[in-house]
Amino acid sequence: MEVFLKKDVAGVGMAGQIIRVQQGFANNYLIPRNLGIIVTAANRASLAKQERKPKDPEVAHSETSMLAEKIGAIKVVLKRKMHDDGKLYAAVREAEIVELLAQKGFKINKNQVIFERPIREKGSYKVIIKLSTKLQPQIHVNVVAE
Fold it and tell me: Which neighbouring-strand residues pair with 4?
């Protein structure tokens, strides 16, 4: 089955591509989550015009490496409520890191955020942002009392 991707899907394809997938995957995952639409004879011509060709791998890699350098230079201060002994009421979640990076102009998904260890008390932590298998810059998160 052919599907036109509306959004990037990890391990499947990039937004604007027409890809071939199993019918069950399309019907049970891509279509209900509004990630793609089925390519039919009626809409094939209009979708072919919208289709974006994949970038040259070298260009995509250089753009990603520049993004990795920018992300690697980020230092974030996170103010949280905590107990008297320095432990947080609730651990820092991936969604909070995504939100902080969005405020700085970087768009990532929460599944790209990897903690070396759970952030449950005040201190300085390194958080990995997985852009690709080779590019995984670290940001510095400093957790302080509110």
Answer: 18, 37
Amino acid at 91: A
If asked whether residues 63 and 38 sit together in one domain, one would say no
DSSP secondary structure of 101-143? HHHTT----GGGEEESS---BSEEEEEEE-SSSS---EEEEEE
Q: Establish how many alpha carbons lie within 13 A of residue 59's alpha carbon, considering only the half-sphere containing its beta carbon.
A: 3
Q: Is the pLDDT of residue 56 over 80?
A: no
In one-letter notation, the amino acid at residue 119 is I
Q: How many domains does the chain have?
A: 2
Residue 38 and residue 90 in one domain: no
Phi, psi angles (nearest 5°) of residue 95? -60, -35
Q: Which residue has the higher pLDDT, 47 or 33?
A: 33
Residue 75 tokens, joined: 């230092």
Which domain does 27 fall in, by range?
A: 2-54
Please state the pTM of the whole predicted model.
0.59
Out of 29-38, 47-56, 128-137, least confident range: 47-56
Q: What average pLDDT is seen over the chain?
A: 86
